[in-house]
Amino acid sequence: MLSDVAIRTAKPRDKPYKLSDGGGLYVTVQPGGGKLWRLKYRFCGKEKLLSFGPYPTIPLARAREKREEVKKLLIAGTDPATQKKLDRLAAERAAASTFGAVVAEHLDNLQANGTAEATMVKNRWMLQTLAAPLAKRPIGEILPIEVLDVLKRIEKSGRRETARKLRGAIGAVFRYAIVTLRAANDPTVPLRGALLRPKVEHRAAITDEREFGILMHTVDEYDGWPTIRAALQLLALTMTRPGDVRGMRRSEINFEKAVWRIPAERTKMRRPHDVPLSRQALEIIRDIWPLSDEGELVLPSVRSDKKPLSENALNCALRRMGYEKHQMTSHGFRATASTILNEPSRGLNPDVIEAALGHQDKNAIRRAYNRATYWPERVKLMETWADILDEIKKSTVTNRRAA
To answer: Do 77 and 132 sit in the same domain of this protein?
Structure first.
């Protein structure tokens, strides 16, 4: 039998030679000085050879343990070489079945299905950054308590809504793992109700007509960057989301039909949204049009015509006008329009207002019906809304002069 001293002190020769430990186990000493473990055995009458790895990475004691493991397999009628191959394949499959590996596949699927880039960025951030503690875990072994621990860390930092969204994102990964036979269940299901409810923070908006008239008059008089003033005016006139207005492209505007078509990939609901453009909105777009002659964006940023205005730029403009974040934000224009237009005294159809705001009816048939039926009413509504804005601005100026 060999000893560690005998193996360690064995000198290389011109040709490889063996140091036997018995039972078919031996070390091959290479001419370059390397020492490799081998095991010779017979299975079904055929002589076969196994490699255990290099010495001293595999010490003598561990090599002997491996030899005993091989003997047990032979007694059980299993070919050790075949078992080694199966073990390697299982290890490779396990490596491809970690949470991180399945996340990568899930994200690739989302990308291939045409998911908007903004949504992809959020999913990557949640699944690859926030859920990083799960990345190396075999997905089929992850327990609900592990997922809860990740979510609670985020929750304790005050980001309750983020924790809730992350639970949904992780659940989507597990559903993909289930259908690809790498997980038996979704550990996020038992976590429903385990997280604290998000603190609802309504976006600040001015809903008093007189106060809103003052704001719109202030916006008209704003002497900052022209695209910022135009963006704020269009937010009010079109009742669309800040991201839609900031990303407005020249190719989306049809002056002849007075329509702005926002493509599906740029809308929150992931479906095209046509916006009737009032006379006032068209005038603003025509005035600002020359500033984007060198690019595609109608409202380019201050620094580059290739980049849109940032939402922060719009909110900062409101702050410079004297409106604090608890009073008005760029998102607040939609709430203002909805509140004023839904006043019972105006007698406007709430369904038409909802369609104009781009809200999606949960009933698919009703949604398709409303989209087709309410177009003439929406065109009229946008003209009415633009006229209302003119009226409340005019009233504001008149009252100020009278005062």
So the answer is: no
The answer to whether residue 303 is catalytic is: no
Residues 239 and 112 in one domain: no
Judge whether 241 counts as a catalytic residue. Answer: yes
User: Looking at residue 283, what DSSP letter applies?
Assistant: H
- The verdict on whether 359 is a catalytic residue reads yes
pLDDT in 10s for each residue of the chain, 403 residues? 889 999 999 999 999 999 999 989 999 999 999 999 999 999 888 899 989 999 999 999 999 999 999 999 888 888 888 888 887 776 666 667 899 999 999 999 999 998 888 789 899 999 999 999 999 999 989 999 999 999 999 999 888 889 999 999 999 999 999 988 888 899 999 998 888 887 655 667 888 888 999 999 999 999 888 999 999 999 999 999 898 999 999 999 999 999 999 887 777 666 788 899 999 999 999 999 988 777 889 998 888 878 888 888 999 999 999 999 888 998 899 989 999 999 988 888 888 888 888 776 555 544 555 555 688 999 999 999 999 999 998 887 666 655 5
Are 16 and 148 members of one domain? no
Q: Which domain holds residue 165?
A: 99-191
DSSP 37-93: EEEEEEETTEEEEEEEEEETTS-HHHHHHHHHHHHHHHHTT--HHHHHHHHHHHHHH
331, 374, 378, 393: the active-site residue: 331
Question: Three-class SS of residue 270?
Answer: coil
Query: Please, which residues bridge with residue 48 across strands?
Result: 41
Could you say which of 35, 246, 273, 334 is catalytic?
Answer: 334
Domain count, the chain: 3
Which of 136, 320, 369, 400 is flagged as catalytic?
369
End of a domain among 135, 163, 191? 191
Q: Are residues 136 and 222 in the same domain?
A: no
Active site residue 331: yes
CA dihedral angle for residue 325, residue 330, residue 331, residue 332, rounded to 10 degrees = 70
Neighbouring C-beta atoms of residue 28, cutoff 10 Å? 15
| CA distance linking residue 350 with residue 354, whole number of Å | 6
